[in-house]
Amino acid sequence: MDWTIPKFPLDTLSDEGLDWLTDHGSWLTRAVSRHVADWIDALTSALVAVPPWIVIAVAALATWKIGGRRVGLLTLFGLLFLWNLRLWQATVETLVLVILATAAALVIGIPVGIWFALSRRAWRIFSPVLDMMQTLPSFVYLIPALPFFGLGAVSACFATIVFSVPPVIRLTALGIRNVPAELVEASDAFGGSSAQKLFKVQLPLALPTIMAGVNQTMMLALSMVVIAAMIGAGGLGRVVWQSIQRLEAGAGFEAGIGIVILAVILDRATQALAARARPHGTA
């Protein structure tokens, strides 16, 4: 079928826009790339330098303190199993990538979520953008990462941040908006400033919802590890990706189980934090 209507040049406009951003912003992205690469290397080297049994013991004690005996034992035996599978180095690389990406997503997402909660106009304008970000295929996030940061862990970290930030923005805004109006009005009646109302009333009451956003953000970051391996990320994702290329089903299965174990540990720990943040007397 011959089209008589000219095609909208979305691909050309996208290429030109990306080229312009790359040409004019390369000085910034290169600086950021160097610093982030240094952080990733430093954290990975530091964790690998410590005997694995010490890291495992500290992680098990921390999760025991956060989530109780069941979560602590899950962490202990899960990490010991990964060590036994000779996947400790890959596990550490994955943890560093997930932790850095999650931390950056929270630093960006929580303030933006607060802004959206306090500004209805901003929420109306940018809510469709969040919807689009959450429906785009995860592979799409690799496209802008490569021109800006090149192959490697930095591109993977950037793509993971962009992919995982929408939930914490949305749930932060939702949590603040759902604070009972009577409590907000009481704060106003007692002469509380906007900052006092936010930090002493709205954020504490919204904390369980915000922690649910932290949980979702961390899970999305972990879900990117295999896809990020396609652009040079290390860790368990690289093991899975290499096993696919080499048709080594056993090695891929081991790494996949490793990702599942990390996901369960991080999920249970963040859920326990969310439960502890919930005010007493609520379900």
TrEMBL record:
SUPFAM superfamilies: MetI-like (SSF161098). It is a multi-pass membrane protein. It comes from the Bacteria. Its main location: membrane. Belongs to the binding-protein-dependent transport system permease family. PANTHER family: GLYCINE BETAINE/PROLINE BETAINE TRANSPORT SYSTEM PERMEASE PROTEIN PROW, GLYCINE BETAINE_PROLINE BETAINE TRANSPORT SYSTEM PERMEASE PROTEIN PROW. This is ABC transporter permease. It comes from Methylobacterium indicum.
